[in-house]
TrEMBL record:
WD repeats lie at residues 36-76. Keywords: Repeat, WD repeat. Gene3D superfamilies: YVTN repeat-like/Quinoprotein amine dehydrogenase. One of its GO terms (molecular function) is ubiquitin protein ligase activity. PROSITE patterns: WD_REPEATS_1, WD_REPEATS_2, WD_REPEATS_REGION. This is Uncharacterized protein. It comes from Cyanoptyche gloeocystis.
Length: 170
């Protein structure tokens, strides 16, 4: 993915199959201003948390927070499972949400390297909440998209089967 720095129109972060995040000045694209190295697999998403910090998600099952000026990794978040699918990544002021390949949404706090919460995407039918109706154990299901509502603790999440849930951190 590619994201513009929120305070400039010419700095972009690019997630790459070469396991890195590249930070470019679009006025001089011959080489990046910085390349952030530390992931073991392809980088599928990038998101800015501030003008000086960019978050990356990789199929190595980690998220990394980078200082765009120094290129230093300032935090690694782990606990979710992501080895082959695009599982989504969303960031708000203090919270980070991502999907996982075990059909759960994970939320991290910016200052903690472990999960703050894990929400299973149960597909129980409202009228018949029995174990037989659950599809949690289906390994083909995964969270495919997450999105914070701006200025709130409300998170919208969707999985690979088209189920959408609205969640709120309280």
């Amino acid at each position: 993915s590619v994201k513009f720095n929120p305070t400039t129109s010419y700095h972009v972060a690019v997630g790459s199959a070469d396991h890195r995040v590249h930070y470019y000045d679009l006025r001089q694209t011959r080489q990046p201003l910085n390349s952030f190295t530390g992931h073991r697999k392809a980088v599928s998403y990038v998101r800015f948390l501030s003008p000086d910090s960019v978050l990356s998600s990789s199929t190595d099952s980690t998220l990394k927070l980078w200082n765009v000026n120094s290129g230093e990794c300032t935090m690694t978040y782990s606990g979710h499972n992501n080895e082959k699918n695009f599982v989504g990544l969303a960031a708000s002021q203090d919270f980070i949400a991502c999907g996982s390949e075990e059909n759960c949404v994970y939320v991290y706090h910016r200052s903690l390297n472990h999960q703050l919460l894990k929400h299973p995407f149960s597909n129980m039918h409202e009228s018949s909440p029995t174990r037989e109706d659950e599809d949690d154990e289906d390994p083909s299901q995964f969270i495919s998209s997450v999105c914070w509502r701006t200025g709130t603790n409300v998170l919208l999440a969707a999985n690979s089967q088209g189920t959408i849930k609205l969640l709120e951190l309280v």
